[in-house]
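Instructor's aside before we start: the two examples that follow are unrelated to each other. I chose them only because their records fit on one page, so don't look for a connection. First example below.
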Amino acid sequence: MVKWLINMQNKNLINTIYMNYKLVELLGTGGMNSEVYLGKYVGNDKDIPDKYKNAAIKIITKTSDTTSDQWNKILDEAVTNARLSKKSDVNIVKLFNYDNNDSDVVKTVMEYMDGESLKIVLRDRSCFSLVETLYFFEKILIGIQYMHNQDRSIIHRDLKPENILTSSDLLEAKISDFGVCTVIEPNGKNNFLTNETSFFGTVPYVTPDAFNCTFSEGKRIPIITKQFDFHSLGIIFYEMLIGDKPFEISDENDSSTIKLFADYDITPMKYINPTITNDVENVFLRLTASKDNDKHLRYSCVEEIIDDVKRIQNKYTKNDKEDDTLKPYYKRTYQGKLLLELKENFTLWKSICKNKWVLGCVVVFGLVTFLSIIFLLLGNLW
């Protein structure tokens, strides 16, 4: 009965116009009684860019179960996202407009990303090549650079593949979900968007620094620094290259596992993937340095990370042989090679996985080839 009522409510909102966008499709539902719709622009601004003619409309309705802290968090997230949306091309999912004139409803109009989250892309691909990893990672870094370099720095605190959204052509990657951000005032004081008596963040991506805190009037007050985001970036970097997290965690809700980085050594990535070079490994190690003896190796700012990534990119490009056949279609740049990898590897593999008949043929062909080799070897032995 409840499901039927929700479906009826969703149908009633289709074709409704919110802030110059007509709701045409329900994209999904989430926590806090939220619904996200695809909206088509129906306003009078003829100069609006084509990429903004579609938008994601998020509608959150307050219920009797919604606490004041939860509702304030929703309002603060909208304000933070709006503040980060003033500049274009910074790899942040932009918020175009929001409305909370109705005290029980918040409506936000956000940039629509027509691809999947990085989590889904990684699930389909298992892992990325080095060139793909560096390409996506640089885009994420540009978004974090913009957040950290505000007059009042914004620390995301919940960076993870699920909160990185991509475009359908996989050429864009943007940061989303600013619900647990912390604003660092010019005087260094933390201004939290959440009630810090609870633990926030996603366990596999949280730095051991999260346990560094003070207590005031019985409340836990963590000491938030840029390392919170750097550590999360390190785990994402590792996942993109290896296809798994550095530690096998049986319970991702067990916050005690956060201390693993401070207590144990990580198996070097090059032992798992021999193509990983020392300079790539060092990026990960500096991002996640958590032992007391290693903390001096940490990056002090996001610009240092970007410099290292660009240096590796340039090294990769310099060592790559020039291919004249590509010039009519792709610039001989790092991005050009990424386009080739994405189109030849990702698209092909994804289409094979979706087509069960083709996948079956590939498996049968591989099996026949394997058996043929075995028979040939046995024939030579006889």
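Example two begins here.
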Amino acid sequence: MGALMDLEKLRLARSLYYQCLGELFVFSFSEERLSKLQEYLKTMQECLFDENLKSNFDILLKHLDDENSIQAFFKEYDLLFLSLKNSIPTTFSYIEEGFENSNPLLCVRQILVKSKIRRNEKFFKESEDSVGFCLLLMSEFLRQNEDDLAKELFEKVINKSIDEFLGDVFMNKNANLYKEIASITSAFMEFERLCFEVEKPAKINSKKVQNDLSRSEFLRREANKQRRTREKSQGIS
């Protein structure tokens, strides 16, 4: 009962973490995009669940001192997730299975049907299985005491692939502010595994993409297919 009471006390703090991180990882057309980031980060820093994260928060808050500093977050987001070359995938479908609109999207939609929450397509153009949207959904579930739905979403979707997503952020040469954000997110995910009593998934080296093929094998076959098509069009036997 004590552990349950502790989780209840942490509900709003956990919801705030999900809200802030969700807004940082989702693209929105809202004019209020990241307008509360400084407020969120200051509050989150006051309720740290890991003292080692203090320096990460300090770096992010320092960048928000200037009036137009929020633009640095927008610019880096675009470089990481919207660039035409080597952009980081942001949907759990692609991260987990190598192509869009796969099982994770179906799973999120099935969970949404059980709730009263729906995606506002006016502001959120990404699919329901985008990393940012799922984190925002977790925030709402916790706020509305929908603990069963929160655990289902975390266990079936987020937990499986969030580490790979964050790893892609860490390794990207354009990541600076988002490395700090990824560090906070990674530590928070470990904390959430404790809250939900869910184990960290075993690392899988090759994804299944289509027809039970790994991503590397799928890409190899696609490259060969394109090569044969080019040779045929050029009259090469």
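The chain has a mean pLDDT of 85.
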